[in-house]
Design goal:
The complex is a heterodimer of chains A (112) and B (117). With 112 residues, chain A is mainly β. Chain A has no helices and eleven strands. Chain A has strands spanning 4-6, 11-14, 19-25, 32-38, 45-51, 54-58, 61-66, 71-76, 85-92, 100-102, 106-111. In chain A, a hairpin with a 4-residue loop joins strand 7 and strand 8. Chain B is mainly β. Chain B has no helices and eleven strands. Chain B has strands at 4-7, 10-13, 19-25, 31-38, 42-51, 54-57, 65-66, 76-78, 87-94, 107-108, 112-116. In chain B, a hairpin with a 2-residue loop joins strand 5 and strand 6 (54-57). The radius of gyration of chain B is 14 Å and the shape is globular. Classes of the chains: A mainly beta (112), B mainly beta (117). The interface between A and B is medium-sized, with 26 and 32 residues.
């Protein structure tokens, strides 16, 4: 079993829809949770960074962490074609980022 | 401009021919790391370094070497490449700050696509 599981998609939604992306994990010791966005032929870029359980909002993006269920989510409101990318969840034990475990990524396409 | 620069961007080589992929960052970051990205497997960490002369294995270190002689550079060395090392490689760097600090953002390079025939 992988430490971090992520549905690979692809996920295709119409412009303006709310998108929900999810990951599950097996190691209850993970404390720091991240979402990266990766455009085609580019390196990943950090979108959201959350510590422990709870919600964090940044513009159209909301990250949720439920440590009791070992489940994290990224919501995108009012989705735009420019949001079309692969989204990777990642998590680590420590904020010093010594060893980060990534999900396999979900490919998202927003239809105009 | 803050950058992580990898070279080359594309490389085709043959089995057993030693190669080095260079990585350089201009942000004075302590932490640097190498990943490989394969379809369905996501990003897997190869090696990381917390500072000069301090390196440690990630999840998939077999067949790779690294060195950190200077803070800005972190080359990835394949002494005897094999076809199963055909992959997309990323270098990343970040600050090392205190616990809970959101400045531990990892900046990624643009990637090196390697094919080993």
């Amino acid at each position: 079993q992988k430490e971090v599981e992520q549905d690979p998609g692809p996920l295709s939604v119409p412009e303006g829809a709310i998108v929900s992306l999810n990951c599950t994990y097996s190691n209850s010791a993970f404390q720091y949770f991240m979402w990266y966005r990766q455009y085609s032929r580019k390196g990943p870029e950090l979108l959201m960074y959350t510590y422990s359980s709870g919600n964090k909002e940044d513009g159209r993006f909301t990250a949720q962490v439920d440590k009791s269920s070992k489940y994290i989510s990224l919501f995108i409101r009012d989705s735009q074609p420019s949001d079309s990318a692969t989204y990777l969840c990642a998590m680590t034990l420590y904020s010093s980022a010594s060893k980060i475990i990534f999900g396999s990524g979900t490919r998202l396409s927003i239809r105009p | 401009e803050a950058q992580v620069t990898q070279n080359p961007r594309y490389l085709i080589t043959v089995t057993g021919k030693k190669l080095t992929v260079t990585c350089s960052q201009n942000m004075n970051h302590e932490y640097m790391s190498w990943y490989r990205q394969d379809p369905g497997l996501g990003l897997r960490q190869i090696y990381y370094s917390m500072n000069v002369e301090v390196t440690d294995k990630g999840d998939v270190p077999e067949g790779y070497k690294v060195s950190r002689k200077e803070k800005r550079n972190f080359p990835l060395i394949l002494e005897s490449p094999s076809p199963n090392q055909t992959s997309l490689y990323f270098c990343a760097s970040s600050l090392l700050v205190g616990q809970g600090d959101a400045k531990n953002i990892q900046y990624f390079g643009a990637g090196t696509r390697l094919s080993v025939l």
